């Protein structure tokens, strides 16, 4: 057992599936937690996650299950790739099975309100006494469909723990997927969450054919808004010039593969929020993030006019 590296991926959605497959292809034994037994059975019997990536042949080193305890058993590294709305619930559910052996990595781009917390804040809050600083966040321009198609991409692992940085690089690097490292957890995490807002704004503006000059203006002001906010929250501004900041912002503000971009486009076409959500079909994290950030800045002196404007439109 000591020679076999085991990793648990919690969340059998589009991103969780591709992360699990890269790790498994690198020789790790991967347990993939999914929401129900039927989905687990289909993945195990078909060797594919037909709901999200029917074209992707999954490694034989992946075993899917809806049983959290068995998925976590003997897994030193736990990658959490669930929607942010259930992230804290999942962290609460895994707490009884966690000990000092484990490291927990957030792969979720979202923020929690009341009180304002990032996903790693939630990990520290519930698991910090058990795992110490063995916490990280993975973020970058990571449109899952392209990763599944082996198109070139990169990501950033941020942690204060050197062992996590090295292990995640080993676990997730491939010929087409480059993993960079950072110690700025706050910057990398807020960049990933905040850019979803601006992807919605970009999709909305593209649907209205505002013009390339306007898009350049919006993109530049988006970077200014998100980095200013993050620096106030303790992030390093240099992080926003890198892959987790500018890289992710550009990719999602111009990609029709981005759920947030698709959602913004649908709003621009005149759909209401529920109809736009249904049209996208998957969770657009930016919708919730807009509400949280708007509430956060409305009671402060922080100015984020793009956020305020899109919030008013919605």
Helix content: 40-55%
How far is it from the N-terminal to the C-terminal residue, by CA?
Answer: 52 Å
Number of helical elements = 14
Helix/strand/pairing category: alpha/beta
Q: Uncertain runs with pLDDT below 50, 5 residues or more?
A: none
Outline the structure in words.
The protein is an alpha/beta fold and 314 residues long. The protein contains 14 helices and ten strands. The strands form two sheets. An eight-stranded mixed β-sheet has the order 3-2-1-4-5-8-9-10, sandwiched between helices.
Q: Summarize this, please?
A:
With 314 residues, this protein is α/β, with parallel strands linked by helices. Helices cover 52% and strands 14% of the residues.
Short descriptors:
single chain, 314 residues, alpha/beta, two-stranded antiparallel sheet, 14 helices, 10 strands, globular
SSE layout and pairing:
Elements: E1 6-10, H1 14-25, E2 29-33, H2 37-46, E3 62-65, H3 68-72, E4 77-80, H4 84-94, E5 103-106, E6 111-112, E7 117-118, H5 119-131, E8 135-139, H6 144-148, E9 153-159, H7 162-172, E10 177-182, H8 185-207, H9 212-232, H10 243-254, H11 259-268, H12 273-280, H13 285-298, H14 305-313
Parallel strand pairs: 1-2, 1-4, 2-3, 4-5, 5-8, 9-10
Antiparallel strand pairs: 6-7, 8-9
């Amino acid at each position: 057992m000591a020679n076999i590296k085991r990793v648990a991926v919690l969340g059998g959605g589009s991103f969780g599936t591709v992360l699990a497959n890269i790790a498994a292809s690198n020789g790790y034994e991967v347990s993939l937690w999914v929401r129900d037994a039927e989905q687990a059975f289909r993945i195990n019997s078909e060797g594919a996650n037909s709901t999200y990536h029917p074209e992707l042949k999954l490694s034989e080193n992946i075993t899917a299950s809806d049983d959290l305890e068995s998925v976590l058993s003997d897994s030193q590294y736990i990658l959490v790739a669930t929607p942010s709305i259930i992230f804290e619930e999942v962290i609460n559910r895994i707490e009884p099975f966690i000990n000092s052996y484990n490291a927990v990595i957030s792969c979720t781009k979202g923020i929690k309100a009341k009180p304002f917390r990032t996903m790693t804040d939630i990990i520290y809050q519930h698991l910090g006494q058990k795992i110490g600083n063995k916490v990280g966040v993975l973020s970058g321009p990571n449109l899952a469909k392209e990763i599944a198609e082996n198109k070139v991409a990169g990501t950033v692992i941020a942690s204060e723990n050197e062992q996590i940085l090295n292990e995640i690089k080993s676990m997730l690097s491939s010929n087409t997927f480059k993993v960079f490292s950072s110690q700025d957890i706050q910057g990398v995490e807020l960049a990933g969450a905040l850019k979803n807002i601006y992807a919605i704004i970009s999709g909305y503006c593209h649907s209205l054919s505002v013009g390339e000059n306007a898009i350049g203006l919006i993109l530049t002001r988006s970077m200014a808004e998100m980095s200013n906010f993050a620096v106030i929250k303790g992030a390093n501004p240099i992080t926003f010039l890198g892959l987790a900041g500018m890289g992710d912002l550009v990719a999602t503000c111009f990609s029709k593969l981005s759920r947030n971009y698709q959602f913004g486009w649908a709003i621009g076409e005149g759909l209401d929020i529920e109809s736009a959500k249904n049209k996208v079909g998957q969770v657009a994290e930016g919708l919730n993030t807009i509400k949280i950030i708007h509430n956060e800045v409305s009671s402060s002196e922080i100015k984020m006019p793009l956020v305020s404007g899109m919030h008013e439109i919605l």
